[in-house]
Write a structure and sequence with these properties.
Keywords: ATP-binding, Nucleotide-binding, Transport. One of its GO terms (cellular component) is plasma membrane. This is ABC transporter ATP-binding protein. By secondary structure, the chain is an alpha/beta fold. 31% of the residues lie in helices and 26% in strands. A six-stranded mixed β-sheet has the order 8-9-10-5-11-12, with helices on both faces. A four-stranded antiparallel β-sheet has the order 4-1-6-7, with helices on one face. It has a two-stranded antiparallel ribbon with strand order 2-3. Strand 9, helix 7 and strand 10 form a beta-alpha-beta unit.
């Protein structure tokens, strides 16, 4: 699906490629998470808590796509949120590129996420008042890149995902598949080491979903990709599939 190579947003592209080769990008060890708990403890016996994850351990290496499957409520999205640093699990550890996320402040986790993680949402989460190019460039605002360079990179990414003629279109003027490709280009804007995708084809028809899956496969060649989905076609592009049931790892294949 890529029509051009994706430009590296950092100065040492060769060093960065070497760092990515055959490395463990994400590691979860014994992760348990209880919603309604504070710091891994019940606030009181009267509190109602939900244990979303129970002793989950998994690794995702660079150049590997790992699929998460399981029924609604099995913990797939919670795994993605833990990997992204959007939540700190009640117990266990989450390491991103060798850094334990629990040891970081909220601000430090945010900086790490902006630099190293690209997130693809099921419902795109594009800002409706911004053009496709402005949506893709948005994560780069905090990077310190001049506006001209942000626009140049966003344009190159949209060309890479086959949307070079849609740079000035608003999300409402794009099809579902085009919006998802904009969302993937946005996720790539900071040249992240890890991509997490939550039901990336859930809103798409079969043909458009196939295009998006081809794009994710291309993305995964030099990144770690963790994708949660109910869709078997999506899971078939994964190198490994982890089945979750009631918050536990039920199977790995």
């Amino acid at each position: 699906m890529f029509t051009h190579s994706v430009p590296d947003s950092r100065s040492s592209a060769t060093d960065r490629t070497d760092e990515r080769e055959s490395s463990t990008a994400v590691r979860l060890e014994g992760v348990t998470h209880r919603y309604g708990a504070t710091g891994g403890r019940f606030r009181s016996s009267a509190d109602r808590t939900v244990t979303a994850l129970r002793d989950v351990s998994l690794e995702v290496s660079t150049g590997t796509i790992v699929g998460l499957e399981g029924p609604s409520g099995s913990g797939k999205s919670t795994v993605l949120h833990a990997v992204s640093g959007l939540l700190v699990p009640s117990d266990g550890s989450v390491e991103l590129l060798g850094t334990d996320l629990a040891g970081l402040s909220d601000a430090e986790r945010t900086r790490l996420r902006r630099r190293h993680i690209g997130i693809v949402f099921q419902r795109f989460h594009l800002l409706p008042s911004l053009s496709a190019r402005a949506n893709v460039a948005l994560p780069l605002v905090q990077s310190g890149l001049p506006r001209r360079d942000r626009r140049k990179r966003a344009t190159a990414l949209l060309e890479a995902v086959g949307l070079g003629d849609r740079t000035t279109h608003l999300p409402g003027e794009l099809s579902g598949g085009e919006r998802q490709r904009v969302a993937i280009a946005r996720a790539l804007s900071t040249d992240p080491d890890v991509i997490v995708a939550d039901e990336p084809t859930g809103e798409l028809d079969t043909a458009t979903g196939a295009d998006v899956l081809e794009l994710l496969t291309d993305v995964g060649r030099d990144r770690a990709v963790l994708v949660a989905s109910h869709d078997q076609a999506t899971l078939e592009v994964a190198d490994r599939v982890v089945t979750l049931c009631d918050g536990r790892v039920d199977d790995v294949r």
